[in-house]
């Protein structure tokens, strides 16, 4: 089921001529080889204008830094998905937990990813890294169905019932490392719903390593705050916890 997409959803700020020039410069410096490598590894858009803009915006429009980080991302992607997609045998146990769902679109046209922490079993940093890559590829496929999609997603992490068995410092670090190092400017908002004390302690350990811009997109929300909240305004009720 997909949510109704508002026709007046937020539009990105128009780029000025200097920024357009920086995008062209970055694309020229990276060259067609990087574009081809990204496509072969599963990022079908390659060095699209959206991709170039995201990397530059996340790196404060520093072409040199953006070039370095895109090249690093390509090397990572070639190791992660040499055949264009994740080897499912390496993440099948995570898939079988049925902890993550793509719900459709929110009212602003972003894909909605809902994750139930209570079903998560820690398996280490690199398994979480692979699972995130697999999930982001799925987000990309869903988002491409919306012609006005800005490339971002809304994440709702349901923390109800989380216990020490679900505690995963390495896994949470992997999620935010992925967002910062490989999927810049992809997160619209992340809602942390019904967080128990054990998660608050985990967040205290991880949050200092999260980029301040990303950290501002993280919203804690308790069940009694749900009614009338920003989450309820953005995401169709059928997608939300009962």
UniProtKB/TrEMBL annotation:
CRAL-TRIO domain boundaries: 90-242
InterPro entries: CRAL-TRIO_dom, CRAL-TRIO_dom_sf, CRAL/TRIO_N_dom_sf
Organism expressing this protein natively: Chlamydomonas euryale
Domain of life according to the entry: Eukaryota
Lineage start: Eukaryota, Viridiplantae, Chlorophyta, core chlorophytes, Chlorophyceae
Protein name per its UniProtKB record: CRAL-TRIO domain-containing protein
Transmembrane segments: none
Cross-referenced CDD domains: SEC14 (cd00170)
């Amino acid at each position: 089921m997909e949510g109704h997409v508002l026709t007046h959803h937020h539009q990105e700020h128009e780029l000025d001529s200097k920024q357009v020039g920086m995008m062209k410069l970055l694309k020229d410096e990276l060259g067609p080889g990087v574009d081809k490598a990204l496509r072969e590894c599963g990022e079908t858009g390659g060095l699209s204008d959206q991709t170039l803009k995201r990397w530059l915006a996340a790196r404060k429009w520093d072409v040199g830094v953006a070039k370095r980080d895109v090249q690093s991302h390509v090397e990572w992607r070639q190791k992660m998905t040499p055949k264009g997609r994740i080897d499912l045998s390496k993440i099948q146990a995570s898939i079988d937990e049925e902890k993550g769902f793509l719900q459709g679109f929110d009212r602003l046209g972003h894909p909605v990813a809902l994750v139930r922490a209570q079903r998560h079993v820690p398996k280490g940093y690199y398994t979480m890294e692979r699972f995130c890559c697999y999930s982001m590829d799925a987000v990309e496929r869903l988002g491409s169905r919306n012609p006005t999609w800005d490339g971002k997603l809304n994440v709702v992490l349901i923390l109800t019932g989380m216990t020490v068995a679900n505690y995963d410092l390495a896994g949470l670090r992997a999620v935010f490392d992925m967002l910062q190092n490989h999927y810049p400017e992809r997160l619209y908002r992340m809602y942390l719903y019904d967080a128990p004390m054990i998660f608050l302690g985990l967040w205290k350990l991880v949050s200092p390593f999260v980029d301040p811009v990303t950290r501002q997109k993280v919203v804690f929300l308790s069940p009694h705050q749900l009614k009338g909240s920003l989450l309820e305004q953005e995401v169709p009720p059928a997608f939300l916890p009962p």
